[in-house]
Design goal:
- The protein is about 40% helix and about 15% strand.
- It has about 180 residues and is of the alpha+beta class.
């Protein structure tokens, strides 16, 4: 502390501002809590240095009422945390689709890429669904016999496989072009 006062003559002011900023952060009420973490821990809001000269305790509320206020604030903080969780879940569910795969379904697998493979396909497959493991994991295996790939994957890495209907080009059109030349 003495070294700091030699370097900076305003060290006591800086130290006081630092302590006030820490106290402000600790007493700040978060949006999901409504009450400050200090209040939820101790049952009262912290006193600032300018309030210390008053000399009174926190307020004239009896201890039983302060305890009731503290328990109700803690219950409200828990409820607000749960409501925030429900709002976040609702936003998360807007961007997710639920899939229910059955044994024997064909799926595409979101293969993890090593390195920079810009032009490689995002999904590989098709793979055959063997059976579900738990609620969100599935066991898949490859469709070819020479590659006996079996893996347990999370549902977020799977997409349903839809077979494409490929159109064939008729050979008559090339014969007509040759005759016209």
């Amino acid at each position: 502390m003495a070294l700091l006062s030699l370097i900076c003559p305003y060290s006591t002011v800086i130290n006081e501002y630092f302590l006030l900023s820490v106290l402000e952060f600790v007493s700040h009420s978060f949006t999901c809590l409504i009450k400050s973490p200090f209040y939820l821990l101790h049952g009262y809001e912290p006193r600032l240095p300018r309030e210390l000269h008053i000399g009174s305790f926190i307020d004239d509320t009896p201890c039983e009422d302060q305890l009731d206020l503290l328990t109700s604030a803690r219950a409200e903080a828990a409820n607000n945390g749960y409501e925030t969780h429900l709002q976040n879940k609702q936003r998360f569910d807007l961007h997710r689709r639920s899939h229910s795969f059955k044994a024997g379904d064909l799926v595409l697998y979101d293969w993890l890429k090593q390195g920079d493979h810009k032009l490689s396909p995002i999904f590989k497959g098709p793979f055959v669904m063997v059976h579900p493991i738990g609620i969100v994991c599935y066991e898949i295996k490859s469709t070819t016999q020479q590659n006996k790939f079996i893996k347990v994957v999370h549902v977020q890495h799977l997409r349903p496989y839809f077979k494409r209907n490929t159109t064939t080009v008729e050979e008559n059109s090339t014969d007509e072009e040759n005759k016209s030349h």
